[in-house]
């Protein structure tokens, strides 16, 4: 399974539901912030691992934080996967730097767990990726090389790529993102930073309005 840069869906720009938000995508829903090259060197956020409901066919989802991937093909990220495959619900943690595939973090993840991710630039090309499960009391950290443009930061629910195609989004419960920070500060999110997920001309996931402080929101699967 591969998490993918945002595949912006311009064909849905006139959709009434998408008009309140800044973008729509085939594989992302959530919030992004953008800036000039080198604008973002640290991102963090917390989220609750959603429950996955059974489906007849295999379905997939990921919740994550990351830098880049919005209007570029670079991306450094960490998050959780929640999928229903061959009749079994699966939950796990991971990190990824495109173009490589995700690396599974070998620590337990369960629905309802409270996660916190942090990605920080340490030096010119060295980055720290940290993921904590606050419910299970574990912390994972890795240092990796990354040279992306640092022009966007994201808090996202994604339908990942499986076997070369964007997967159908799993039937996940509402996913709450909290304590979002970019460069150590509240991102002051507005609706224009938000985006909906549209698959096969159907809106499948929509973020809520941001909190008054502009640092938390939820993503709801609606189809």
Report a brief summary of the structure.
This protein has strands at residues 23-25, 28-34, 42-48, 52-53, 62-67, 76-85, 88-97, 103-105, 114-121, 126-133, 138-145, 152-158, 161-162, 165-166, 171-172, 175-182, 194-199, 202-207, 217-221.
Highlighted features:
Peptidase A4 family protein, 223 residues, ConA-like_dom_sf, 15-stranded mixed β-sheet, Peptidase_G1_sf, mainly beta, Jelly Rolls, glutamic-type endopeptidase activity
Walkthrough of the structure:
The chain has no helices and 19 strands. The chain has 223 residues and is mostly beta strands. The protein has one domain: Jelly Rolls. A hairpin with a 2-residue loop joins strand 6 (76-85) and strand 7. It is globular, with a radius of gyration of 16 Å. The chain starts with 22 loop residues before the first strand and ends with a strand. The mean pLDDT is 93.
Summarize the amount of helix as a percent range.
Answer: under 10%
Distance between the termini: 22 Å
Quickly count the domains: 1
If classified by CATH, what would the architecture be?
Answer: Sandwich
The CATH homologous superfamily is named: Peptidase G1
Proportion in β-strands: over 45%
Question: Got a strand count?
Answer: 19
Low-confidence stretches: none
Mean pLDDT: 93
């Amino acid at each position: 399974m591969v998490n993918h840069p945002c595949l912006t869906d311009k064909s849905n720009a006139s959709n009434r539901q998408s008009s309140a938000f800044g973008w729509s995508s085939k594989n992302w829903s959530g919030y992004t912030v953008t800036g000039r090259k080198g604008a973002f060197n640290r991102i963090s956020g917390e989220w609750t691992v959603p429950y996955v409901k059974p489906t007849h066919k295999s379905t997939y989802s990921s919740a994550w934080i990351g830098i880049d991937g919005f209007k570029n093909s670079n991306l450094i990220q960490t998050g959780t996967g929640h999928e229903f495959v061959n009749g079994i619900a699966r939950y796990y943690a991971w990190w990824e730097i495109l173009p490589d595939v995700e690396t599974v973090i070998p620590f337990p993840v369960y629905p309802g767990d409270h996660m916190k991710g942090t990605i920080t630039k340490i030096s010119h090309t060295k980055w720290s990726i940290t993921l904590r499960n606050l419910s299970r009391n574990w912390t994972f950290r890795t240092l990796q090389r990354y040279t992306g443009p640092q022009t966007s930061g994201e808090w996202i629910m994604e339908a990942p790529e499986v076997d070369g195609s964007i997967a159908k989004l799993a039937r996940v419960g509402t996913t709450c993102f909290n304590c979002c920070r970019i460069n150590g500060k509240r991102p002051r999110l507005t609706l224009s930073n938000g985006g909906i997920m549209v698959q096969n001309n159907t809106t499948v996931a929509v973020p809520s309005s941001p909190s008054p402080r502009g640092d938390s929101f939820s993503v709801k699967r609606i189809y």
